[in-house]
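Many introductory courses stop at the sequence. We go one step further.
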Amino acid sequence: MSYVRCQRCDRPACPQCQRSAEVGVQCVDCVASAQRNLPAEHRPPRFADKHGQPIPVVTYVLIALCGLAYVAQWATNGLSTGVTESLWYAGFYTSAASLDSQFAALSGIGFEPWRMLTSAFLHSMSSPMHLLLNMVVLWMMGRTLEPALGWARFLAIYLISAFGGSVAVLLLANPLAPVVGASGAVYGLFAALFLMIRRIGGSVVSIGALIAVNLVISVVWSGISWQAHVGGLVVGAACAAVLLFQPKSDQTLVGAEEAAQRRRRIRRRQWWGLAGVVVILMVITAIGAMQITPESLLAARG
């Protein structure tokens, strides 16, 4: 008969089932339960190479989707319902004018807000380098950020930054000029990497210079949507700040279970913070939409 009880469930634990922990002796069942409840960043990576290094699966999936979309763009090039024309974005698609049924019927374009995200998976058909450069940078950023943040938060930064780039296009660009490209999302990853390096006390000179040079090229080089780049950069920085700059927990005063609970609370705050960024972008989108009326579109066309 065992006179030693588990400090978590208070059940008797025989010598073979006892496990030492920070808060005393625990049974094997409670230890296994605690390990299952650990946050993703404290678990072994689900996908790893033969050396145990995490594989950035979401990064590769995003690259594959952009590549497949590019193939589809070429396959449907010249069609009236081609992939490029069906998924690119311009301010008109989320404007007050597109909600005007009479004007939308005359123009043949309606209210299609999903284009604010789908355009981030398309690239310029006249310049394959547009796709190549974006995918190379995405691969470089993803290899560092996805394992550090976790696949879900990495994907959230990518998609919300793409949304932010489209919001900037809505506010600052010609509402009739369509845009494509993952650049807004990639610039959001630039901002996230900058803040992550800053958070751990590393030098941000190199990444800062890279961002500055690319922004200058975006403004000087014709045919590049600098609005999407700036929008993605600003929104990516906001998302990264929500994830990285959370209050630190005092781990010296709590046990493993309490520490795990605090980590779960931090994750909840992070996701609520990201949701707040999305809500703000939606409000800004509504405000920008009201500025694009049938009259302003006729003026822009003329």
